[in-house]
TrEMBL record:
Keywords from the UniProt entry: Acetylation, ATP-binding, Ligase, Magnesium, Metal-binding, Nucleotide-binding
Binding site for CoA: 166-169, 284, 498, 559
The protein, known as: Acetyl-coenzyme A synthetase
Taxonomic placement: Bacteria, Pseudomonadati, Pseudomonadota, Alphaproteobacteria, Rhodobacterales
An example Gene Ontology CC term for this record: cytosol
UniProt gene name: acs
Length: 624
């Protein structure tokens, strides 16, 4: 199959695309070019279909009473909800009619600032049903981040909840939305889904009560006939420079790829309960919590809470209660659970588990072994899936049971994917089996992003200009003697904190916006649970003195500017930063000091003032 997928992609992909219901079948399969200046990606270009109809309507024939979504609320004493495909059809239909009533039309952007509640999935599918483009904003993001995404996407509506319970606490999403909209056009409206029912502020005329509106509309909504290349969603993700970019995924190719990878990478079998722990705010929540599983008629479990609430056995309680067969999570979650020892796992019946999966960052062998032995009892294949927001679905992954695994390697390319390892400086393709360099992909696959929202030039520059003719992933990679791929981490200024992508430039611009901060440089450093932690070097304004209070204030500041995921772990007061004579900050040196590896600083002779380095080493924060 792999040979056919790369030698005869037309035949291969037209067969795979037949897994979906098309309104008008496509006659063209692939029309793609990575040539600089002419980058164009189009799959199944003249076909038409509707994503919601594929994820819901077509299953009603034989799965109307099958559970589509098992929703497990944060509160361990509250009952789980079983939402059948018929329920899903009606709830999505209602949400779609509510959106239409609010004048949302084909092509309009709708921001979903939603926590892990079923209405998040309803809203995604409702947008897809009427041809609107959703952009989910992770509920942990601050009002400023939300406002930037409303403006960046030109959205006319924000769908949110009153509150978002999580881990026994709650976030005030509606009041965050109010704060965000202070920075947006006056005509942006808000649709509020009731989650807790507690009191919230209300702007008459602008705010709409979802529950009241939904009760008054029909559950039937005709799906819009969309072109395969019409945008399905925008998802903002961090890059090495500037503001987050709006990754655009389209209708046909994305859904073919999400459905196919969900089936093959997890060997999904009808009737099985599948649990992906990712939040809907990230791409994994799009492809592997909502779209892939529902396109396949699967039962997907959505958990509102966190693995350690009310205690570290919550995950295993859920696996036992709901007979979870496939469990897909992030290495950082595995490490956090592993830190509690085996006691929270003991006493739970995990025999329903068949396949385990990881995503988001390389998994360290210690965590892999614990996952394999203590959770999988040595009998569940572990699929380490490498992919990105930009790729729409898995690109490098084992096929469970078929691909022998090695702890820490995502193993081999998925069908249709041709990874190459390039020399970082010359850009030459490394043709020996054993190789190390930057990871690029040679040809397109259907789930590939199509553009950056509103900025096709930035799309070409970011992904297709450094290494001409290839898609550049931003990751470093090693290929071993068996042809297995080992991701070595980002080669750009993007760090990976608890499996979340964070641009160091974003944290820096938040910090320098603080009145006491003159200059700052942010780097990643190894962190036992998070994978990478955030290390900030801060130079204060003249006259400001370092203090514990100021440190706390800076941390609060960054949390408010971006969100809790960007919280610096370590802040070092830096009287000066190491710079070249042309004023460029030498991040390589700062990274080494943050890693506590200052013995290997390399050449510092090009520094304008080499003495700043001694001070930074002397006062380094990570002595672990
Ligand atoms: C799906 C997702 C993408 C970046 C990617 C890489 C890292 C993801 C990985 C992995 C090693 C894996 N990454 N999966 N590294 N092994 N299995 O995480 O998307 O948030 O866009 O992050 O995450 O560095 O470039 P996204």
């Amino acid at each position: 199959m792999y040979a056919q997928s790369v030698n005869d992609p037309e035949t291969f992909w037209s067969r795979e695309a037949a897994r979906l219901d098309w309104v008008r079948p496509f006659t063209r399969v692939k029309n793609t070019s990575f040539v600089p200046g002419k980058v164009n990606i189009e799959w199944f270009g003249d076909g038409t279909l509707n994503v919601a109809a594929n994820c819901i309507d077509r299953h009603l024939v034989d799965k109307a009473d099958t559970t589509a979504i098992i929703w497990v609320p944060d509160d361990p004493d509250a009952p789980a909800q079983h939402i059948t495909y018929r329920d899903l059809f009606e709830n999505v239909g209602r949400m779609a009619n509510v959106l239409k009533g609010l004048n949302v039309k084909r092509g309009d952007r709708v921001i979903l600032y939603m926590p892990m509640v079923p209405e998040a999935a309803y809203a995604m599918l409702a947008c897809a049903r009427i041809g609107a483009i959703h952009s989910v904003v992770f509920a942990g993001f601050s009002p400023d981040s939300l406002g930037a995404r409303v403006n960046g996407s030109g959205a006319k509506l924000v769908v949110t909840t009153d509150y978002a319970p999580r881990g026994g606490r709650k976030t005030a999403l509606k009041s965050n939305t109010d704060a965000a909209l202070l920075h947006c056009d006056d005509d942006v409206e808000v649709l509020v889904v009731k989650r807790t029912g507690e009191q919230i502020s209300w702007v008459e005329g602008r705010d709409h009560d979802y529950n009241a509106l939904a009760a008054a509309v029909s559950p039937y909504c005709t799906p819009a006939e969309m072109n395969a290349e019409d945008p399905l969603f925008i998802l903002y993700t961090s890059g090495s420079t500037g503001q987050p970019k709006g990754v655009v995924h389209t209708t046909g190719g994305y859904l073919v790829y999400a459905a196919m990878t969900h089936e093959y990478s997890f060997d999904y079998q009808p009737g099985e309960v599948y649990w992906c722990t990712a939040d809907v705010g990230w791409v994994t929540g799009h492809s592997y919590l909502v779209y892939g599983p529902l396109a396949n008629g699967a039962t997907t479990l959505m958990f509102e809470g966190i693995p350690t609430y009310p205690d570290a056995s919550r995950t295993w309680q859920i696996v036992q209660d709901h007979n979870v067969a496939i469990y897909y999570t992030a290495p950082t979650a595995i490490r956090a659970l592993m830190a509690h020892g085996n006691a929270p796992v003991e006493g739970y019946d995990l025999s329903s588990l068949r396949i385990l999966g990881t995503v988001g960052e390389p998994i360290n062998p210690e965590a892999w072994n614990w996952f394999n032995e203590v959770i999988g009892k040595g009998t569940c294949p572990i699929v380490d899936t490498w992919w990105q927001t930009e790729t729409g679905g898995h690109l490098i992954t084992p096929l469970p049971g078929a691909t022998p695994t090695k702890p820490g390697s995502a193993t081999l390319p998925f069908f249709g994917v041709q990874p190459v390892i390039l020399d970082p400086t010359s850009g030459a393709e490394q043709t020996d089996v054993v190789a190390e360099g930057v990871l690029c992909i040679k040809d397109s696959w259907p789930g590939q992003m199509r553009t950056i929202w509103g900025d096709h030039a930035r799309f070409e520059k970011t992904y297709f200009s450094d290494y001409k003719g290839y898609y550049f992933t931003g990751d470093g990679c090693r290929r071993d003697e068996d042809g297995y791929y080992w991701i070595t981490g980002r080669v750009d200024d993007v760090i990976n904190v608890s499996g979340h992508r964070m641009g160091t430039a974003e944290v820096e611009s938040a910090l320098v916006a603080h009145p006491s901060v003159a200059e700052t440089a942010v780097v990643g450093y190894p962190h036992a649970i998070k994978g990478q932690g955030i290390y900030a070097y801060v130079t204060l304004m003249n006259g400001e003195t370092p203090s514990e209070d100021l440190r706390k204030d800076l941390i609060r500041w960054v949390r408010a500017e971006i969100g809790p995921i960007a919280t610096p772990d370590l802040i070092q007061w830096a009287p000066g930063l190491p710079k070249t004579r042309s004023g460029k900050i030498m991040r390589r040196i700062l990274r080494k000091i943050a890693e506590n590896d200052y013995g290997a600083l390399g050449d510092t002779s090009t520094l304008a003032d080499p003495s700043v380095v001694d001070d930074l080493i002397e006062n380094r924060m990570n002595r672990g």
